[in-house]
Amino acid sequence: MDIIISNSSGQPIYEQICRQIKGAVATGRLKPGEALPSIRALARDLRISVITTKRAYEDLELQKEAGLREIEEHLQAAVDLGRQCGLTLEDLDNMLRVLSEEE
After folding, report:
1. How far apart (Å, rounded) are the C-alpha atoms in residues 6 and 16?
2. Model pTM?
């Protein structure tokens, strides 16, 4: 994975790393389930502190956790509404599968 950092940028290095990893995911250069370099390997490759790469990875993990919580809230709302409409779990599962295939 190619990450380019700029020491002259006004943006902290850990934020540059986060932004570029998110960009790689968004553009498909980084596939779901594909492993990121280890913290030490990335620090070595970029010639930066392990602490900096650790912070970037921790920030990405926190953002992932926040996203998962939000998804859970939306799914719970969908389950609640589905119950009110008399839908089964299988009905909701089918709807989710159809929606995910439409992309």
Report:
1. 8
2. 0.73
